[in-house]
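Trying the structure run again after the queue cleared.
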Amino acid sequence: MATTKKTPVKKTPAKKEIAKQEITKHDIITAYMDYVLEHEKTPKSVYKFAKDNNMSEQEFYKFFGSFDSLRKDIWNTFFTMTMDVAHKNEEYDQFSNREKMLTFFYTFFELLTLNRSYVIYTLQENQHMMSKMEQLKGLRKHVKNFAKDLIMQRNEDKSNIILERSETIYSEGAWIQMLFLMKFWMDDDSAGFEKTDMAIEKSVNTIFDVFDNTPLDAVFDFGKFLWKERMA
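Done. Tokens:
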């Protein structure tokens, strides 16, 4: 009687477990901005937000202590990315202080334009000015330090101490300029935001003309520009 040989069953190799990709700060920021734009509201809890984005609360808290700190860091990231782009220009270090300031504002608002929907939402979500300023606190510090460095360089070139400028006053002026330009950009409905580019150029030139002790014509021209745009 023929016997049938039992075919040995090959053991199926165990599937290799795919390692979970490490969550980065950029991943969390991107997920948060997407959530805000898709739901037109901010997340209610870190737990739910983390679960919906395949991460743990621990991974979120590794980078941010709260949604408030995340919102602040988004603005810090805008500043850092702006400076990274500026320094990629090999000629940046040879730019005059005026050119560095122009480069900063042009690049910063190009970046804001790429994220315009989020920026408009987050600045309009809280109508209370103090709520808006809270998330811009880190950006304010970065902008003031950037302006202060430029002013320090400018003062080093002045042999007469009378011609030196207050770093505190002018760095605060640079922040006020930033707030004005942000409001201008938010209201700008021109193609390619051309009016914002004009506002950047005129405001930066005005500040540096003031540095050079020729303020009257520049301030008058800038004032006419603002009057025309606001009354149009």
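The two ends are 105 Å apart (CA to CA). Worth checking whether this holds up in the mutant runs.
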